Amino acid sequence: MNHNEPILGELESLLEFYQAAGVDACLTENPLDWFEESARQTTKRLQHGHNPPRETAEHAERPPSRQPSGSSVMPVGAAPSVQGPATGHTATIPDAAVVESARDAAAKAQNLETLCSILEEFEGCNLKLSAKNLVFADGVPNARLMLVGEAPGRDEDLQGKPFVGRSGQLLDRMLHAIGLDRTNVYIANVVPWRPPGNRTPTPQETEICKPFIKRQIELANPDMLVFLGAASAKTLLGVQDGIRKMRGRWMTYDLNGRTIPCVATYHPAYLLRSPLEKRLSWRDFLSIRSKLHKQDNEHI
């Protein structure tokens, strides 16, 4: 009798659970002593003639404290960047300086192709370290209708396109029901990299990515915006209402001084979990179709 079989069976079950939960990336294989790393980075900057901030210098003068085994919590005064676990890129502390660098980078894009290239080179968002692909957009850039979600999932990360998994297939059917498809809409996400395990992006990650999606909307220049879920609406409109209170209510988005109509509806992934809510999303999409037809009549 093989006494290892129960252990192997438990490990297989655990791996199946992680896979079903969407976990497919290991961020660190070994614990990292951030105090020691901070002191090393400070010494490196001093060797190159850079004067560190006072807090960092004082921290370097103290003997480095040891974190408990297996801990990877970053303390105050840690180094601004460390080597990424598997990609060779560096991890970045998501501070105000990184947000400002995102704004500067996004502002330089004169078209959507350039914006995509800038995002591919941007190193300020740590989600890039674990994501397989940049998920920039799908559809046609000059479409009248632009749909914005929160962040890509596993299928989107693998293919590099937004809304291509089960929720994307449902979205395609919803669009088709009102006479639209990906040849006459433009689709993007606030966050263009998949968070590990499909977790919710942190407020810092969203803030870093916000300048890019705002510039993407400016360059796409749609006549109407549809927010898929409350997260994208809250990020871009600054509202705090939940999706149940917000959905179906027409609002406006400021686009370079031009206000365009926008509406929030349930995210397709939520509808897969709560199919009874599809009737409300159907009302929202009928309202979107009516709004598009009204705009057509006004332009005649």
TrEMBL record:
Region Disordered, annotated ranges: 40-89
Domain Uracil-DNA glycosylase-like positions: 136-286
Cross-referenced Pfam families: UDG
Listed GO biological process terms: DNA repair
Keyword 4Fe-4S in record: yes
This protein's UniProt keywords: 4Fe-4S, DNA damage, DNA repair, Hydrolase, Iron, Iron-sulfur, Metal-binding
The EC number(s) this enzyme carries: 3.2.2.27
Catalytic activity, reaction form: Hydrolyzes single-stranded DNA or mismatched double-stranded DNA and polynucleotides, releasing free uracil
Molecular function GO labels: 4 iron, 4 sulfur cluster binding; metal ion binding; uracil DNA N-glycosylase activity
Residue stretches of biased makeup (Basic and acidic residues): 52-64
Keyword DNA damage: yes
InterPro entries per UniProt: UDG_Type-4/5 (IPR051536), Ura-DNA_glyco_family4 (IPR005273), Uracil-DNA_glycosylase-like (IPR005122), Uracil-DNA_glycosylase-like_sf (IPR036895)
Family, per entry: Belongs to the uracil-DNA glycosylase (UDG) superfamily. Type 4 (UDGa) family.
Name of the protein in its database record: Type-4 uracil-DNA glycosylase
Organism of this sequence: Roseibium hamelinense
